[in-house]
Amino acid sequence: MDWGMENRLGRLIQPDGHCFFLPIDHGYFQGPTRKLEKPWETIKPLISYADGLFVTRGVLRSCVDPSNCPPIVLRVSGGSSVVGKDLANESITTSIEEALRLNVSAVGMSIFVGSEYEHQSITNLGKLVNECERYGIPVMAVTAVGKELAKRDSRYLGLCCRIAAEFGAKVVKTYWCENFEKVVNGCPVPVIMAGGPRCETELDAFEFVHDGMQKGAIGLNLGRNVWQHDHPVAMIKSLRAIVHDKASVQDARDIFDEEKNK
Predict the structure, then answer these.
(1) Alpha-carbon span 216 to 37, nearest angstrom
(2) Residue 140 half-sphere exposure, CB side, CA atoms within 13 Å?
């Protein structure tokens, strides 16, 4: 692996081989998502606990302090909104030159396997990897499902992750599912778990994250289950303990209870 590529990945993936990215890119298709209306206010108490920030260039420039932020994974795909016809109809929206200007550690884009726009999104990934390899920038592929959450089973997600790796993604972000080890074992690059919609309880989040880490994920890219929670700092500390300190579900619950009462 080229030195620059390895160096950028090393900023994001910590010495223990694990990582916890905080995504705040939701506005690119959802607009002012609840609790993310003012991004800087939302992330201010959380940013020191994140190994990376997944963000669009607009919010990065307007809301993130360049002297106080973790490494950046830049969202570079988009083009459809939650009120539009199909969330899968995305294109590459941000140039490699822009990523270099912003000194990012990686770029991220979505692929929509099985959708009407499958070919477009997967070939976009190939083109993005071609450009990024030229400059030593890792690509994180996001296995998006649009509004069709029922697709999130191991067979489908395993297919998506393998395709993303085959097209050159250095890391793949995907959803946790039952039999998650099948997804990880079929993907030759590191897999990071997405959070998706808010879990019913914090225990639900601790359980799926612990299970996914036990079954081979290297970490998390999880936002709404942190910053939409009533106790976001307690959540991020608890989840980080599972990712980096091999905490059990009960350990995470104890950390959460202690932190929320501070």
Answers:
(1) 34
(2) 31
Element (DSSP H or E) covering residue 238: helix 232-245
Amino acid at 159: L
> Using the 8-state DSSP alphabet, how is residue 143 labeled?
E
Instruction: Using the predicted structure, report yes or no on whether residue 76 has a pLDDT greater than 60.
Output: yes
- Determine the pLDDT at residue 195: 84
Residues with catalytic function: 173
Express each pLDDT in 208-258 by its tens digit: 999 999 999 999 999 999 999 999 999 999 999 999 999 999 999 999 999
pLDDT of residue 197: 72
**Residue linked to tokens 């590459």:** 92
β-bridge mates for residue 55, sequence order: 74
- Contact in structure between 92 and 130 (CB atoms under 8 Å): no
- Bridge-based pairing of strands 106-111 and 91-92 is unpaired
| Nearest-10 Cα torsion for 179, 122, 13, 49 | -80
Six-digit token string for 244: 């980096």
Structure token pair of residue 106: 């990686």
**pLDDT above 60: residue 37:** yes
Cα dihedral 9/13/19/24 (nearest 10)? -30
Which structural domains are found in the chain, ordered by start? 3-228 (3.20.20.70)
Q: What would the two tokens of residue 12 be?
A: 């994001």
